[in-house]
Design brief:
Elements: H1 23-37, E1 44-48, E2 63-66, H2 72-82, E3 87-93, H3 94-99, H4 101-110, E4 114-120, E5 123-124, E6 130-131, H5 155-161, E7 166-171, H6 177-185, E8 191-196, H7 203-207, H8 211-220, E9 226-230, H9 236-246, E10 270-277, H10 282-295, E11 299-305, E12 314-322, E13 336-339, H11 342-352, E14 360-363, E15 375-378, H12 392-404, H13 409-418, H14 424-435
Parallel strand pairs: 1-2, 1-3, 3-4, 4-8, 7-8, 10-13, 13-14, 14-15
Antiparallel strand pairs: 5-6, 7-9, 10-12, 11-12
Helix pairs in contact: 1-6, 10-12, 10-13, 12-14, 13-14
Length: 437
């Protein structure tokens, strides 16, 4: 609390709203609530966006943030998460609630500690009086000159049912509006006040609306006024920090250390690309390579590429193996390339033109005639005696690795078993059948 009592959080600027606009009533009530709370002005943050309500922050001697239309709640949530000790107040219009509807729902369901004052004048006042998500049925606006055909969004109940802890609806003309705002400001969680008001330039003028008519419209629509919801639950920013504190110093994921059991097979960076079809266990075979490398004291990275359909189209795995930490995982020209299906060929044929004679290419018989300067070896699935068809990919890759002589055979067998506990014996048997052939 400041040493000297604060008598107002307003500055000397006069409101620039249209004469008769209700925005000033709400801001005056907000000022009264803040005066009673005596919060340090720098610790109060008014967050606004576009619309007449977006002019509000300039009239207060507090911290402020002004952003894009409908996004005030995203900024407010970010400020609260970064600085949970601040008192964050989002000032938004009904137009902004429509544009940023997803932000409204997410702030509510998270129960982020932001107080939201909705300046609900039932239309887009700043941009010419177009209808908004809050325009009542039959409402005459610039875009609904014959009357609005849509039912309005119940802003208050929408956030209430989606997790907001404190929700109130009323008008800018309530005598205790400052007390309502104070209750929302002191609520530890997401609080929203849906404050209906008059846009004298557009909506009120076109629809002959006055304060009593606002209440009548609420009643006609079956929209209850007053405190609609008050259900305290943990505030998100504080809960998130508490959770983070409880996990401080602990790994984000439980590690599974792999001891070095076999001699390192490489003294330089070595890259491998395995290209096949989605659903063909390409990534599984690549994982076997990475595990074998790790068991052999190497660093290993694996980058996978496949279409969103997952089970159709190509499947490509790029591996980088190195005796030192891998800081760049890109593969420009692979040392070894496995082309094991037409899908894989179409995605990796460009490598064939750039691979030098010292590199190796392993292909299935279909691509035995592809042109390349690299050393080429044909791997025929039909020769995988004793290997089930669903494990041909492991068998083909293991056969190629055997030709390369990169790993101790026992490293490959252990890696094959380590891919999946459920299929350990099956995978090991497939690799063993190839290595013993």
């Amino acid at each position: 609390m400041p040493e000297q009592p604060i008598t107002t959080y307003r500055n000397a600027k006069k409101y620039g709203f249209c004469p008769g606009c209700s925005h000033g009533l709400i801001l005056n009530a907000l000022d009264k609530a803040l005066v009673r709370l005596q919060w340090a002005p720098a610790e109060v943050v008014l967050v606004t966006d576009i619309g007449c309500v977006g002019l509000s922050d300039q009239y207060f001697t507090t911290s402020a943030f002004h952003g894009l239309h409908g996004r005030s709640l995203t900024y407010a949530a970010g400020i609260k998460l970064a600085r949970p000790e601040l008192h964050v107040i989002a000032l938004i219009g009904d137009g902004g609630c429509g544009i940023g509807g997803a932000h409204l729902l997410n702030a509510a369901r998270r129960n982020i500690g932001v107080t939201t004052l909705v300046f609900n004048n039932l239309n887009f006042g700043m941009t010419g009086g177009q209808h908004s998500v809050a325009t009542p049925p039959e409402g005459v606006t610039a875009t609904t000159p014959w009357g609005n055909l849509e039912r309005p969004l119940d802003i208050a109940q929408t956030v209430a049912i989606n997790g907001a802890g404190h929700v109130w609806r009323g008008t800018a003309f309530e005598k205790d509006l400052d007390a309502r705002i104070e209750a929302a400001l002191t609520y530890d969680g997401f609080a929203l006040l849906d404050i209906w008001e008059l846009c004298v330039a557009y909506y009120a003028a076109s629809n002959n609306v006055n304060p009593k008519a606002l209440v009548a419209t609420m009643e006609a629509l079956g929209l209850q006024a007053g405190l609609l919801h008050d259900a305290p639950r943990p505030e998100y920013a504080a809960a998130l920090r508490a959770q983070g504190a409880s996990q401080h110093g602990k790994p984000a994921a439980q590690g599974r250390p792999l001891p070095t059991r076999y001699p390192p097979p490489l003294d330089r960076r070595y890259t491998i690309v395995v290209a096949g079809s989605a659903g063909g266990r390409v990534r599984t075979a690549a994982k076997m390579i990475g595990l074998a490398a790790t068991l052999s004291g190497l660093w290993a990275t694996q980058r996978d590429d496949y279409p969103v359909t997952v089970r159709s189209g190509h499947s490509i795995s790029e591996l980088v193996l190195a005796p030192e930490e891998v800081r760049y995982t890109g593969v420009t020209v692979p040392d070894a390339l496995f082309i094991l299906s037409a899908d894989g060929y179409h995605k990796t044929a460009h490598y064939l033109r750039t691979m030098p004679p010292t590199s190796r290419v392993f292909v299935v018989p279909e691509f035995a005639d592809v042109a390349t300067s690299a050393q080429k070896t044909v791997l025929d699935p039909e020769t995988l005696t004793g290997v089930p068809r669903n494990n041909w990919m492991l068998g083909l890759v293991a056969a190629g690795l055997g030709r390369l002589g990169l790993f101790d055979p026992e490293a490959l067998l252990e890696a094959a078993a380590g891919i999946s506990a459920a299929y350990a014996d099956q995978n090991r048997a497939a690799v063993a059948a190839v290595l013993q052939a």
